[in-house]
Amino acid sequence: MEMSPLETLYTFISELLERQRHLDEDSHETVSLVYAEALLLRQLLDPTLSEFPKQIVIIGPTQAGKSTLTNLLTGAAVAESSALAGFTRHPQGFSTETLDADLKATVTSLLAGLTPTPPNALSADELKAFALVELPADAQPAYRPAIFWDTPDFDSVSSRNYRFAVPKVCAIADTIVLVVSKEKYADQSVWETLRLLAEVPRPLLVIVNKAPAQTEAALEVAVTNKFAQEGIAQSGILSLPYLEQASFKTLQQTEAAPLLSERLRDNLEQPKEPVSAQLIKRFLQRHWLEWTGPVRLELQARDIWTRMVSETLENARGQYERDYLRNPDYGDTMQQAIVRLLELLELPGIATSLARIRNTLTWPARTLYRNFIKKQPDKNGKFQPKDHETETLQTVIAAGLTHLLRESGDHAVGDQHHQGWWQQLWSTLQEQRPELEHLLIQSIESHQRAFAPQIQLAADKLFAHLQKHPATLNSLRAARVTADAAAVVLALKTGGIGVNDLILTPAMLSFTSMLTEGAVGRYMTQVEAELKKAQLESVQTHVIQPMQARLLRLPEQMNRQTLFGISSNSLEKAEDALGRLA
Question: Would you say the pTM of this structure is higher than 0.85?
Answer without folding.
Answer: no
